[in-house]
From TrEMBL:
Record keywords, A-Z: DNA-binding, Transcription, Transcription regulation
Entry superkingdom: Bacteria
Gene Ontology MF, one: DNA binding
Natural source organism: Thalassospira profundimaris
Official protein name in the record: GntR family transcriptional regulator
Amino acid sequence: MNTSTSGLIGISDSGIKGNAHVPASALVYEDIRNRIISLALLPETTLVRAELAESFKVSQSPVREAIMRLEQDGLVVSYPQSRTVVTKIDEARIREEHFLRVAAECEVVRQLAEIKESPAVTKAKGLLKMQEALVGDIEQIDLFKQLDDSFHAALFNGVNQSNLHLQITARSGHLARVRTLDLPRAGKMVSVLDGHKAVIEAIQSGDGATAVTEMRHHLSGTMERLPLIIEENRSLFT
């Protein structure tokens, strides 16, 4: 079991500070969550609240609030004496999160196809061009993933469902960790890009049924490989 977060929280010497718009607890939450999703913090890593507070240069209150949110997301579990542990990836949770994401995103693209052209589609196309420039560059995989997330967020924004996207993202931590494991696979970046292009083409043509089919297919790749991903990374799963 990993027993400490020392050296893993890569923040500046000045720590983090909240403001009127973003409280410190939200910044702590986002930082820890991103590290769990990226597997910089592996399953069974112990998070010590006092160490986290010192690393972030905040009191333990924001850390406590952040950990409570992470527990709600199913990414950590807390025990007495201020010990918190990163959860293992759970297959049942993965399938639930995938089901929710498919249902929501298919409806999103169906509605966008009724509009055809919109600022959201224009933004998504711009993000596609940025992703295309990164395909094949494994050193840029984190940026590629950020652009992938932004692409899907843009589609939700296009039907005025940005809050729904945030809720789904917060509840998809187990699926997100599997995506982290799958993205470096040879050909995966190309597959993601092709899926995005097919969805946009269907939306712009006004073909809602095809847009739904393409989105469903786009979201299925990692799930089809799930048994192999689990087999190759057995220690990370329940």
